[in-house]
């Protein structure tokens, strides 16, 4: 059962767990794909709670999210779904139906078209308010050499958190 929570009720656990991976799921038209993310932030801007995710141009997810109006983030907090996170973080939805192949089960969201991934603990439904491709000329040299030696930059998607839930036993 999912209990509705305030967007930042569990942000400390969320930010810790994010390093190990969470599922960024997008539905665009008939296409649904999920990929593992390890970077992101939760904040409060434009008088609204916002989840910011970073998607490199090379990802299949980029093709979807750039035309979509929403996304979800599903976060395992207890180390579960490790194999699924590794799979969805190494295979591309261009080549394989990752949800079918990994046996992940989708759950309908309440407010957005993109679904949630069953079996996680924390969920965020987000409506995209702003997107911004990185400007490499404004990037710190250290970060550029450490994270972008292949010129595969990120696009940042800022989604208004319209619903957030915690799984209850
Ligand atoms: C732990 C982990 C964290 C990751 N974080 C991100 C991320 O924040 N942004 C990103 O673009 N790719 C990230 N990736 C890589 C993508 O998940 C990976 O390239 C995936 O295969 C892309 O799938 P897609 O082509 O179906 O979109 C991460 C991978 C792992 C294993």
CATH superfamily: Electron Transport, Fmn-binding Protein, Chain A
Order of helices and strands: EHEEEEHEHHEEEHE
Distance between the termini: 7 Å
Strand content bin: 35-45%
Can you give the helix content as a percent range? 10-25%
Explain what this protein looks like in three dimensions:
The chain is an alpha+beta fold and about 170 residues long. It has a single domain, classed as Electron Transport, Fmn-binding Protein, Chain A (Pnp Oxidase, Chain A). Helices cover about 20% and strands about 40% of the residues. It contains five helices and ten strands, in the order E-H-E-E-E-E-H-E-H-H-E-E-E-H-E. The strands form two sheets. Strands 1, 2, 3, 4, 5, 6, 9 and 10 form an eight-stranded antiparallel β-sheet that branches. The mean pLDDT is about 95. Bound molecules: flavin mononucleotide. The site of flavin mononucleotide has 19 residues, from strand 3, strand 5 and helix 2.
């Amino acid at each position: 059962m999912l209990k509705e929570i305030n967007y930042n009720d569990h942000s400390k656990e969320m930010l810790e767990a994010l390093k190990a991976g969470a599922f960024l799921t997008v539905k665009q038209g008939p296409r649904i794909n999920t990929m593992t993310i390890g970077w992101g932030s939760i904040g409060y801007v434009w008088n609204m709670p916002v989840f910011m995710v970073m998607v490199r141009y090379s990802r299949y997810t980029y093709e979807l999210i750039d035309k979509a109006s929403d996304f979800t983030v599903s976060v395992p907090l207890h180390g579960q779904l490790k194999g699924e996170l590794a799979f969805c973080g190494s295979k591309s939805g261009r080549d394989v139906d990752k949800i079918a192949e990994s046996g992940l089960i989708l759950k309908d969201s309440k407010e957005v078209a993109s679904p949630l991934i069953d079996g996680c603990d924390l969920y965020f439904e987000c409506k995209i308010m702003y997107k911004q491709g990185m400007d490499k000329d404004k990037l710190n040299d250290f970060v550029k050499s450490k994270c972008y030696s292949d010129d595969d930059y990120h696009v940042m998607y800022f989604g208004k958190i319209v619903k957030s839930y915690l799984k209850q036993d």
